[in-house]
Amino acid sequence: MSHTEQLTRYVANFIDELAQGEMTDVVISPGSRSTPLAMTFAEHPKIKHWIHMDERSAAFFALGMAREQRRPVAIVCTSGTAAANYYPAIVEAFYSRIPLVVLTADRPHELRDVGSPQAIDQINMFDKYVKWFQEMALPEDHQTMLQYVRSMGSRALSTAQDSNPGPVHLNFPFRSPLVPDFTLSDVWGEERNVQHRPVLSGKRTLKLEQIQFIKEKIASHSKGVIVCGPQMDPELAEAVTDLAKHLQLPVFADPLSQVRAGYHEKDHVIESYDAILKSEEMRQKFKPDFILRFGAMPVSKPFTLMLHEHPEITQFVFEDFEGHREPTHTQSFFVYADGTSFCHHWVEEVGTWMFDKAWLDKWREANRMAKACLLEDSYVEPISEGHVITNVMDSIQASHAVFIGNSMPVRDLDTFFFTTPKPIEVYANRGANGIDGVISSALGTAAHGKEVTLIVGDISFYHDVNGLLMAKQYGINLRVIVVNNEGGGIFSFLPQASSPDHFETLFGTPLQLDFQKVTEMYGGTFYRASSWDEFQESLNITAENSGLQVIEVITNRQDNADWHRGKWSKIKQALLQL
């Protein structure tokens, strides 16, 4: 049997197994050694292939798509440093628990470590940032090898999705010739009636006596808080707010928790806890006795500081399967059980257990006062970065999604995104908190038709302009709001700002780039807003149009820092009266 026939059947059976496992999308970066994978994916009728020239942006695009679709997406590249460009997105997928199936082509074994071009060591190249690695066998097509390659495909899918989802890596060594032959009979194994056999797994739950143990640990306290950090379970918001109602506890809702927006009840939701806890004095005044935390660690730095300053707070950290996302190293209880199921079980089996109503009322009043301070002077010139968030969130429609950039934008979202009945999903790359790949992740989120607005700083925008190609290439609709304060605005809030001799060069890093030219190069429409009227007009226009649309909002870094500090001071003075 010819090499080409062996290659074709081997790769086709692998890809068909992914399709039978309900994989629907693959992102391919062109290259020669990956020809068998790329052409066979393109040939398969049940998998849509997306072509992206830049491997780094391609991987982030797939990451955004996998998060939004809540299922694995494959990425394919050629050998050599092409695969190394996947690294940032794989790290993000690992920490954000997003399922990716990473397929790298490689030189065959005889061409490794002998000076052959485009050959690097790809064995375990992503190290601990993938859940599983497999060096694939060289292609053969006898029955045992076709069963083997299908089992690897099935295992890749199940491993990527099971427990804490994450990336898996399969490395395919290929010998030339590399072009498959799709004229062969039964390429996909249909005549052999091959059927996918999924791996079945369920949610982890607690026994009633374990829930009773948690109840006993917190029963002697009167002041508790439920905290919901970044997470994407669409059912948790209603479950956790229902639990809060039964326990009469406030809910600290991170902006990425999916708790601030939606149809569920929000009477107990405290969205301004970050602003309330800015000062050490307020962290003492509003210190809880215990915390029940769901999801990842919140964005809020004041919340983290409160835990550092008060290690005596009893904390239960809920993880759906496993993990240790508690960077303060306090003596926390870790609960490995599905958070939504836990909330339901408490309400159904333990029932109502009222804590101090005065404590809840105190938090509600503090939240009301903080929001009033934050909303003052909403449209006073010049444009304030925090009220850009308020304006956007008020203007977008139901079922819209917001993708938020790291550094300053996500912190402004934390402060200025208030509860709303509109079902708005909020996405961010908060696994590693990097600024790379944000445009690509947002485009991946929008790739299947979801309306998405990306809010990002000028440095993050610059960092991933290559990602804009996908908007032009596939006609993906994306509205991008670039908050341009000419540099890294977050550093104006950090101690580095007190060293003016080197601040601008090392941390401020003004770009002085014309983003209009970049936008138009990728077929987008550009708007620039330096006043509230211009910004509102741009929002109204872009809400009606399609394609890539970029709104650049001009702000000033130092004015922004002073404005934020003024807000925090005013909130503190108001709260001293409570």
UniProtKB/TrEMBL annotation:
Pathway: Quinol/quinone metabolism; 1,4-dihydroxy-2-naphthoate biosynthesis; 1,4-dihydroxy-2-naphthoate from chorismate: step 2/7; Quinol/quinone metabolism; menaquinone biosynthesis
Stretch forming the signal peptide: none
Cofactor: thiamine diphosphate; Mg(2+); Mn(2+)
EC number: 2.2.1.9
Catalysed reaction, written as an equation: isochorismate + 2-oxoglutarate + H(+) = 5-enolpyruvoyl-6-hydroxy-2-succinyl-cyclohex-3-ene-1-carboxylate + CO2
Annotated Menaquinone biosynthesis protein MenD middle domain residues: 219-404
Quaternary structure note: Homodimer.
Biological function: Catalyzes the thiamine diphosphate-dependent decarboxylation of 2-oxoglutarate and the subsequent addition of the resulting succinic semialdehyde-thiamine pyrophosphate anion to isochorismate to yield 2-succinyl-5-enolpyruvyl-6-hydroxy-3-cyclohexene-1-carboxylate (SEPHCHC).
Name the UniProt record assigns to this protein: 2-succinyl-5-enolpyruvyl-6-hydroxy-3-cyclohexene-1-carboxylate synthase
